[in-house]
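wait is this the right file?? whatever heres the structure
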């Protein structure tokens, strides 16, 4: 249920909202019909039970659709949070691998600079590897 994507929940929420608007229109029509029947009926005929049942069902459907729209919005937000969490986890994994790669390259560079220092009998620092090393630092 929650593993569905954000797009699914957006479409579902739009569909439920459309149905809720239709239910509001339907409720208004049922209420108007019930009111007209009550107005046109003779006092001895007035029971309104079937009309009240129709109005009650229409109201219950409207409430249920309202709750469903709210729930769908919550599920959409859960899907967004899950998607973001997955993206963050992937980025953290990438950062970790890049940091490991950098540490490995730093170690190799230090080893090569130490060999160069030994060969030329001068102390070289990683500063010589910078694009514009400051004069006098190597």
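ok assuming it is, sequence goes like this
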């Amino acid at each position: 249920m929650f593993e569905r994507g954000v797009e699914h929940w957006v479409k579902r929420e739009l569909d439920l909202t459309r149905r809720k608007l239709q239910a509001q229109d339907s409720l208004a029509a049922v209420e108007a019909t019930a009111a007209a029947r009550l107005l046109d009926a003779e006092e001895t005929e007035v029971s309104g039970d079937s009309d009240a049942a129709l109005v009650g069902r229409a109201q219950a459907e409207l409430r249920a659709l309202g709750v469903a729209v709210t729930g769908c919005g919550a599920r959409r937000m859960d899907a967004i949070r899950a998607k973001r969490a997955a993206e963050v986890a992937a980025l953290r994994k990438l950062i970790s691998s890049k940091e490991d790669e950098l540490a490995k390259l730093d170690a190799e560079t230090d080893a090569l600079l130490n060999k160069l220092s030994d060969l030329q009998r001068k102390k070289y620092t990683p500063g010589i590897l910078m694009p514009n090393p400051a004069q006098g630092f190597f």
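DSSP finds two helices and no strands in the chain. so i think its the right one actually
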